[in-house]
DNA sequence: TCAAAAGTGTTATCCTTACACCCATGT
DNA sequence: ACATGGGTGTAAGGATAACACTTTTGA
């Protein structure tokens, strides 16, 4: 094993690649988290706003991303956060995709827009659970898990139940942790669930990459596929947002300036895919002092008028990790 | 504002870039976290193991990274995790750096090697607090903060104390949060601290990029600089490792197979840069069941022989977030 | 007057923090 | 015997989880 001299700079053999920026832009419409799509390809697969990074046009990734979004969707972005950079867009290129050497940088962005109000009616939002339906556990466990996913994964597990992977977990254990029903279920494992389905060859993207299982036709489609690796980016965004919400007040980046506590809870439930306990949610919001009453009331809620609240920006400097605990089931 | 037709694919004008992979490889030597350096450049600045990504040679980033590390350092890597992708390596290229269009993907890796034992004596590890000395608060607040950083930042703050940045925080507030002494201090904000010093023009890297403050010579060097953006990657690695340690059992990736509880605590303290409370640390380790006694004892510790423990791999499947809480000061 | 949603009170339990003390070895 | 570090018990305080009930509006 040779070692280069101390001054060696590993720049020899530099390979030119293309860097693509993709945004998962999330907004809330009533009870549903929505994802902005920039259109669909010839096969009808949804595509996220995206485009190549040109360092001559934009100094940073984030500036390039904002430019692409402005051009393709005309939605104002608030919070923006880099997610992950994928060097492998699946194992094989698509038929109409000549250059396979694309590096894909995924971003999460949040928008205050309420897609249901249609203020910018032209921006086409879609329900994010249309793409990852097994992630919505708000009202009972979704049917697709018991009906399609677990039967197919049972066969996949049976082929090799006991060999541990790099993290020491067997197929049996991974399936139980990710799609099971007990305390070990974690809403933050959204990416792991998608990756497991990909690995088992049960999502359309696996077929595209030549890694489909024979079971894929038996089970039928699991959520709507997206172009390229966009559904993987969406799953990454969901996982990150669910985790981040618990220790940073990012949820307010999707709320209007004034909101009721119930609306806030509905949003937290929509993102995390779980029902929350009303009293404890309220107590936590109150004691953590992340919101303050505006003094106004809303009587558009059906029953007793609800007090309106606003986000207290001061918490950003008062506490290092002001988030919304989502630990309690309703 | 025009919108492309639904089927449009934003691939026109694809720009070739070079993708560079860089690894911050951490190991523990007694009481000190160490970082593997692959050498130094002509100016004496340390460089991390790194190299360009070639998709023809390696299917994934991680495989490429492991290949570069194998070639430059000969250290076995356990845990590997992607950190962040920087599209801007500082605002300006270095003098001897002809192609400015490099995208830098940073990685965190952990190694079981004890650099103090010198099993592989050729691998040159350095103390990571040599590069970021203000991060070590184990034994009182480091002198460099009171002596150099705060005086220089006071002048920087005085030039614009009250204008809020994108997150609504003023210079005054940021300095107090990041370098202050109260409860708001967070060990996980290591990257924010480095970025603040860069923004204020107080680190060598800022001078290199043409953004040095006149104060930089007055204050004198703040930690050892590294080549390119390597110190930024190190700060990112430190922040991520400190955060991750609290909810994932990554610390065991740096421990030998059997260890005493005191050694485990010393490691947690070394990484987090803070002293921990002995009894509470032990109780947490015990109740969380992340370790189990081997039955052996070590009498090389000076006093009463210490029981040896090993990591219980089973916790990975028992609990979704088994980490080491580091919330308690000693 | 009743449905619907807002909003509150109270208790058991567990975890965190903090205190101080005992134990087993080498020198 | 004593210095050195290993190892424990217990109680106060606070946060969390769980229970059900009252209040205010519109229809």
Question: Could you explain the architecture of this structure?
Answer:
- Two copies of one chain form a homodimer.
- By secondary structure, the first copy, chain A, is of the alpha+beta class.
- Chain A is built from ten helices and eleven strands.
- Helix content of chain A is 30%, strand content 18%.
- In chain A, helix 2 runs antiparallel to helix 3 (171-179), helix 3 packs across helix 4 and helix 4 (190-199) packs antiparallel against helix 7 (230-244).
- Chain A is globular.
- In chain A, 40% of the residues are buried.
- Residues 1-11 and 91-98 of chain A have low confidence and may be disordered.
- Chains A and B meet through strand 1, strand 3, strand 5, helix 1 and strand 6 of A and strand 1, strand 3, strand 5, helix 1 and strand 6 of B.
- Strand 1 (16-29) of chain A pairs antiparallel with strand 1 (16-29) of chain B.
- Chain A binds a DNA duplex (27 and 27 nucleotides) through residues 260-262, 277-280, 282-284, 287, 299, 301-307, 325, 327-328.
Which key features would you list for this structure?
330 residues; DNA-binding; Arc Repressor Mutant, subunit A; Nucleoside Triphosphate Pyrophosphohydrolase; homodimer; 3 domains; 18% strand; alpha+beta
